[in-house]
Recover the amino acids of this structure.
């Protein structure tokens, strides 16, 4: 049976690290931090006894954070998609200009 204080500490650390990475838009770190958080969750749930109220609260906090992370990632994805579409439109405009310039010359 794992020490409940260590479990709480791991969950708190996961919440902090995932929150920081999300706020800083450090998308490359999220994968590793997600693995660490999932391991902490498994340890909290496989503790051999029912989780304490504090651990339950931390798990709920972590769940809310994951929802925020998903929303942040979706917003970032949408922003990047808009940038790509604008870039494609600019490139098409350049290509059309170059084609029309060649046909005149």
């Amino acid at each position: 049976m794992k020490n409940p204080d260590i479990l709480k500490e791991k969950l708190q650390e996961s919440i902090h690290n995932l929150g920081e990475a999300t706020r800083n838009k450090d998308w490359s770190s999220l994968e590793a931090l997600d693995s660490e958080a999932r391991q902490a969750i498994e340890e909290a749930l496989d503790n051999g006894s029912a989780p304490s109220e504090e651990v339950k609260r931390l798990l709920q906090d972590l769940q809310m954070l994951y929802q925020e992370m998903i929303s942040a990632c979706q917003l970032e994805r949408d922003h990047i998609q808009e940038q790509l579409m604008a870039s494609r439109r600019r490139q098409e405009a350049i290509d059309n200009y170059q084609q029309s310039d060649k046909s005149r010359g």
